[in-house]
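Recap from last week: sequence in, structure out.
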Amino acid sequence: MRIPFKPISLQDKEIITSFTYPSELRNCDFSFANMCSWRFLYDSEYAVINDSLLIRFKIEDKSRIAYMMPVGNGDLKAALELIEADSLEHGHPLLMLGITPDAKMMLEEVLPGQFHYIPERDYFDYVYLREDLSILRGKKYQSKRNHINTFKKKYRFEYMPITPELVPECLELERKWYKANRTEEDKEELSFERRSITYALEHFNELGLSGGAICVEHQIVAFSFGMPINHNTFGVHIEKADIKYDGVYAVINQEFTSHLSEQYVYVNREEDLGIPGLRQAKLSYQPVILLEKNVAVKKTHKEEKDGQQRANQTVMENLL
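Predicted C-alpha cells:
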C-alpha cells in the first residue's frame, strides 16, 4: 500500500493538531509551527491512515528519508510496517528521529528488540515547569531575579502580546540580532533560522502562535513566541533580544511564561544544538526534564536473525 503523503501546509493545522494535542509526546518536533515554518528545509509531509498520523521528511541535503513517531489511536505496529515499507521503497532501512523514552517504550512493546537506538545529546529538549519559569521562586533562581531587578531599575518597560501590527518591529529586531550575532561558521544555520522566523511571524495567526514583546521607550527590545505541543506542554520556539539591555532575556522569559495559560504545566524550550553558551543558559533555568531524543534505526532481517541466534545460544548455555 502506497502512503498518500502530502506536503504540510497552513491548511493542515486542524487535522495535524487533532493528533498531536491529545498525545503524551511533548518533544518540540510535534509543534505544528515547527513543522510548517521549517518545511522549506526538510520537505516535511504527512498522511493520516487508519487513525494514525504519519510524518516523513528529508535529511542529509534531502538525500535521505526519515520519519517521526506515528501518533494517534491506530494500530502502531501496522503504522510502523507502512512507513518501513515506504522507507525501503526509497532504498533505506526505516530511520526515525526524535524518539523519546516514551516513544521508545511504545516501539519496544510492539516490535521488541527490532531497533537500534542512538541518543543525540545536542537535540535533547529542555522541559521546565511553567510555574518555575514564571515565579522564579527559591535560591536556585536568585541570579535570574537579580538580572530582572537590574533591568527594572534601569528601564520602564511594557509587556505587549504580539499582534500583526507588531510583526514589522519584531522582524527589525531579528534583523539587528542576526547582524550582531552572525559568524562565518554559523551563517548558514542562522540564515535558515531567520527564514523560519520570518515565515512564522508573517503567518502568526494562521499557525496558531502566541507571543509577547518587551517594549522600552516605544521600541521593542525583546520578543518570544511559540505554540502548544500537546495538551499540557507549551513550546517556546523563538526568543530574541537586544543584549544592550542588561537582563532583558530574563525579563522576556519570565513575562512570556507568566502570561501562558495554567493549562500548560510544562514549557519546552527546545534543544541547545551543542552550542556551549546556549547549553549553559538552558541548564541555568533548572529543567525538570532533559528530554532524551534518539535516532531509531530498524534492524535488517539479518541483524534480527543473528540477534535471535545469539539469544538462543545464551539460553542453551544457561540450561547447560
